[in-house]
């Protein structure tokens, strides 16, 4: 519970003697959501503000907890409900369910957190065979009364008595068929009266009892049904997925009903204090005369713009405008309002902070700052990284006519259109000729990097959100859809077969949506993002032609940068990505993966290194690689001049740089059958067999490579040192950090560091330049986290590789598990979200905390960062702020998101400290 809980409320599991279980709407407030639920708290708040809310009362979540634990309602609850019902009846001047002019109430659920459609509601309680006559007389509308009664029996039968809802639906369909009509509203009062009789028979047959005619029994049973709905399978699954605690319980709101369908001086509507689509101020909403809310929702009749209410009922309109202004100023945010006018009297049925589009969220936040309603810190809490990401990526024009042919995993947002190509070589070739292409593969590997760079987007039939295709695509800001299993990709025949048998040949145009995972035939027009143009420097905030949204984003980002403690770096492997990262606000490079520098034209040199039989051959290969590596680093240091650049030494298994074992075996066999020379292919095949591992990600890779292959790491360290020396000679300011991957014990790091220090000293002596190169390690194995105190003795910094750490903690192979069973785990609520997307705080997060604490106890000035995919995940950024990391590192296109979330984390932690 929050600090605003009622002091008389019993804690979970304690005696309930003297505890208050029912609150009139006049007694609560908006800060009692733990106790009164969101709906009840807001109804109470509006009541306290003197706004016209239909009288009612709220049964607390504490009552629900007692009921769920014991199977019985608290002993005092019935008497409290009776007292509040008596007061309600006195206020309304009529009794619940009385024969003439009956009081009717709704019984609605209302938990602290919104759980749409998960729990139960019953309307029109108080109607019976007698009171329906009084309602008809009161309303002057027999049809309205009997339809209301029909709805009560249907809802009550299904929700409270457990009757199969299909039985009611079948009876309703039969009534419409007999009348030869297609919609409920075409049934007349006599038809509905017959339907009521049929519904009561269904209740008697299926529930073994008559529909209760006692209005108080209806209400009590409905209250219990709402309590019970907290623990339905669907509600529990929803809570698991949304990470809502199971012990909160739900409040129950009993509210007198008002009707907007009592004539032309009545009506119902929905209003927003600002446009939820754009954020603009004005009169936004819909109104419908002589109608109830369900008529608006069902679209039975056309609504009119809210502004027209001024002509229909100026008194109610003026009152509503004043109330809307009051609510927005009070909640200091966009409010979503439901209202009813009953015979010229305005009633407020609900208010809540309204949902809005991503663009509206940024505009409204800055508008409220300008109006003095909130400060900059509060503005940061009104937006989030997910909304910013939505604004950054181009999207398809939803109004366009499209043909959807498949759907996969939305791996990297954006909208991409191009000609289908099925290999990297063709992608590069066509791209250089000016064609836009979509690279389609079953799955990608490092060999496809050139093609991925050339393509507008990547589509695979295998893999998940952290597969090679997904990770690399996000790093490059490329649109990517992975795991579209219904698409049959045939790379040899250069074609893709889609459901229904249609074949996409190479050269056919396809479109992929990385935000939804959808795949389309043909070209779907896209709408560019001005926000990306702003970050890229092509649109300037403050300019005359600047987009209004860009101005809002610019201001919010400035707020975030002023507030945040965490620095934000980029995962970048080349100068182009580094420059883009700087434009996006990166404060350095947190991960440069050197393995990406060994592909393409250098592959032959790597093969020679692997095939070397003697030390001399190995040294010759390394000697040829050295100047190429050095030039890579010179360009990178120049792009990031004055900012830190963390270079990770070679990490993946060497067999990834060799041809596929099956393809190579076929080549060797064919050459032998044709008696063609194949000595080099045979040596390659022998090397592939020699290096083959059952589980290469847990085999010869990372620091193990540097220890087993003499000269490999020292070559890379020398290239880094010489590049830094060259930049210093050119008056640059290189700030290189050398990172050793996959360390599991301090001894590994000590050996590599000793060799690295010697090389650095040699370069310093030769160049006459003092180099300030720090040496650290990735913490990506559980043992490294558990022995972080020891490892910190030899490391000047830690960077948490949370991708591999998640794999090794969970025992997951991420490329396999997402496609095999993650969907089932998400559906069953075992995961609320994939642990590869958002850090697992309880497991992986605990190891991070332990390593941070132990590392800094050994070395207080230890620099700490994270360079896994989690570095750009909004929720994970907050965790990294909390545990005290110095920086997060992520792909260039996620940098703005990380900056924003780092600012939000700082603001929220300051708020927690103050509390």
UniProtKB/TrEMBL annotation:
Classification via SUPFAM superfamilies: Glutathione synthetase ATP-binding domain-like, Phosphoenolpyruvate/pyruvate domain, Phosphohistidine domain
Catalysis performed (reactions): pyruvate + phosphate + ATP = phosphoenolpyruvate + AMP + diphosphate + H(+)
Record bears the keyword ATP-binding: yes
InterPro entries (alphabetical): ATP_grasp_subdomain_1, PEP-util_enz_mobile_dom, PEP_util_AS, PEP_util_C, Phosphohistidine_dom_sf, PPDK_AMP/ATP-bd, Pyruvate_phosphate_dikinase, Pyrv/PenolPyrv_kinase-like_dom
Sequence ranges assigned to domain Pyruvate phosphate dikinase AMP/ATP-binding in this UniProt record: 73-302, 309-359
Occurrences of domain PEP-utilising enzyme C-terminal (ranges): 551-903
EC number annotated for this UniProt entry: 2.7.9.1
Sequence ranges assigned to domain PEP-utilising enzyme mobile in this UniProt record: 435-517
Protein name as annotated: Pyruvate, phosphate dikinase
Organism: Streptomyces africanus
């Amino acid at each position: 519970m929050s600090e605003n809980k009622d002091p008389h409320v019993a804690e979970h599991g304690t005696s309930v003697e003297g505890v208050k279980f029912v609150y009139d709407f006049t007694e609560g407030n908006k800060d009692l959501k733990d106790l009164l639920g969101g709906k009840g708290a807001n109804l109470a708040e509006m009541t306290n503000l003197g706004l016209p809310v239909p009288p009612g009362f709220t049964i607390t979540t504490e009552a629900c907890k007692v009921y769920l634990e014991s199977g019985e309602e608290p002993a005092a609850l019935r008497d409290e409900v009776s007292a509040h019902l008596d007061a309600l009846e006195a206020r309304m001047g009529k009794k619940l369910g009385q024969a003439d002019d009956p009081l009717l109430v709704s019984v609605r659920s209302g938990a602290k957190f919104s759980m749409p459609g998960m729990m139960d509601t019953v309307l029109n309680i108080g109607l019976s065979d007698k009171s329906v006559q009084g309602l008809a007389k009161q309303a002057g509308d027999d049809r309205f009364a009997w339809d209301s009664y029909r709805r009560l029996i249907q809802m009550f039968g299904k929700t409270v008595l457990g009757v199969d809802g299909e039985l009611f639906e079948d009876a309703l369909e039969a009534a419409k068929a007999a009348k030869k009509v297609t919609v409920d509203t075409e049934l007349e009062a006599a038809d509905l009266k017959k339907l009521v009789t049929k519904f009561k028979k269904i209740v008697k047959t299926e529930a073994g009892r008559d529909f209760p005619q006692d209005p108080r029994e209806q209400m009590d049973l409905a209250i219990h049904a709402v309590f019970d709905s907290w623990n339905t399978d669907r509600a529990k699954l929803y809570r698991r997925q949304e990470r809502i605690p199971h012990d909160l319980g739900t409040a129950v709101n009993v509210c007198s009903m008002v009707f907007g369908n009592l004539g032309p001086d009545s009506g119902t509507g929905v209003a927003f204090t600002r446009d939820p689509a754009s954020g603009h101020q004005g009169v936004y909403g819909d109104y419908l005369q002589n109608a109830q809310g369900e008529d608006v929702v069902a679209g039975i009749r056309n609504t009119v713009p809210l502004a027209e209410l001024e002509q229909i009922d100026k008194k109610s309109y003026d009152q509503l405008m004043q109330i809307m202004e009051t609510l927005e100023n009070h909640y200091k945010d966009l409010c979503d309002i439901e209202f009813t006018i009953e015979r010229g009297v305005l009633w407020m049925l609900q208010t809540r902070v309204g949902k809005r589009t991503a663009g509206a969220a940024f505009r409204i936040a800055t508008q409220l700052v300008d109006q003095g309603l909130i400060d900059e810190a509060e503005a940061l809490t009104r937006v989030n990284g997910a909304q910013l990401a939505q604004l950054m990526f181009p999207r398809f024009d939803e109004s366009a006519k499209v043909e959807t042919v498949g759907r996969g995993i939305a791996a990297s947002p954006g909208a991409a259109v191009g000609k289908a190509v099925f290999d990297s070589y063709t992608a590069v070739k066509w791209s250089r000729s000016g064609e836009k292409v979509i690279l389609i593969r079953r799955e990608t590997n490092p060999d496809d990097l050139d093609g991925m760079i050339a393509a507008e987007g990547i589509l695979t039939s295998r893999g998940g959100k952290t597969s090679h295709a997904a990770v690399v695509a996000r790093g490059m800001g490329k649109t990517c859809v992975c795991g579209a299993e219904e698409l049959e990709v045939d790379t040899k025949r250069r074609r893709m077969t889609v459901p229904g048998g249609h074949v996409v040949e190479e050269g056919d145009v396809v479109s992929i949506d990385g935000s939804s995972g959808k795949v389309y035939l043909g070209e779907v027009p896209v709408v560019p993002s001005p926000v990306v143009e702003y970050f890229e420097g092509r649109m300037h905030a403050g300019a005359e032609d600047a987009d209004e949204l860009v101005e809002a984003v610019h201001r919010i980002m400035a707020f975030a940068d002023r507030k945040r403690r965490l620095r934000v770096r980029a995962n970048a492997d080349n100068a182009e990505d580094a420059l883009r990262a700087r434009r996006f606000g990166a404060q350095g490079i947190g991960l440069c993966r050197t393995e990406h520098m060994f592909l393409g034209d250098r592959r032959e040199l790597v093969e020679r290194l692997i095939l070397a039989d003697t030390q001399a051959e190995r040294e010759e290969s390394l000697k040829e690689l050295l100047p190429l590596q050095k030039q890579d680093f010179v360009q990178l240091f120049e792009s990031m001049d004055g900012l830190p650049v963390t270079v990770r030494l070679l990490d993946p298994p060497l067999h990834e740089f060799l041809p596929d074992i099956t393809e190579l075996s076929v080549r060797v066999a064919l050459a032998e059958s044709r008696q063609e020379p194949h000595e080099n292919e045979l040596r390659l095949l022998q090397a592939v067999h020699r290096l083959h591992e059952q589980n290469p990600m847990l085999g010869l890779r990372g620091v193990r490579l540097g220890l087993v292959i003499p000269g490999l790491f020292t070559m890379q360290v020398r290239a880094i040192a010489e590049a830094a020396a060259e930049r210093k000679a050119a008056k640059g300011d290189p700030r290189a950090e050398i990172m050793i991957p996959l360390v599991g014990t301090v001894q590994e790091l000590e050996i590599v560091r000793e060799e690295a220090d010697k090389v650095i000293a040699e370069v310093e002596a030769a160049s006459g330049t003092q180099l300030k190169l720090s040496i650290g390690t990735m913490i990506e194995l559980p043992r490294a986290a558990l022995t972080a105190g020891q490892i910190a003795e030899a490391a000047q910094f830690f960077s948490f590789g949370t991708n591999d750490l998640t794999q090794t903690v969970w025992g997951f192979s991420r490329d396999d598990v997402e496609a095999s069973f993650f969907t089932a785990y998400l559906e069953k609520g075992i995961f609320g979200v994939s642990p590869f997307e958002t850090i697992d705080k309880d497991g992986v997060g605990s190891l991070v905390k332990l390593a941070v604490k132990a590392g800094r106890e050994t070395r207080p000035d230890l620099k700490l960062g994270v360079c896994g995919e989690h570095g750009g995940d909004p929720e994970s950024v907050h965790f990294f702020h909390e545990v005290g990391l110095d920086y997060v590192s992520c792909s260039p296109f996620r940098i703005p998101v990380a900056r924003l979330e780092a600012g939000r984390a700082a603001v929220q932690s300051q708020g927690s400290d103050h509390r």
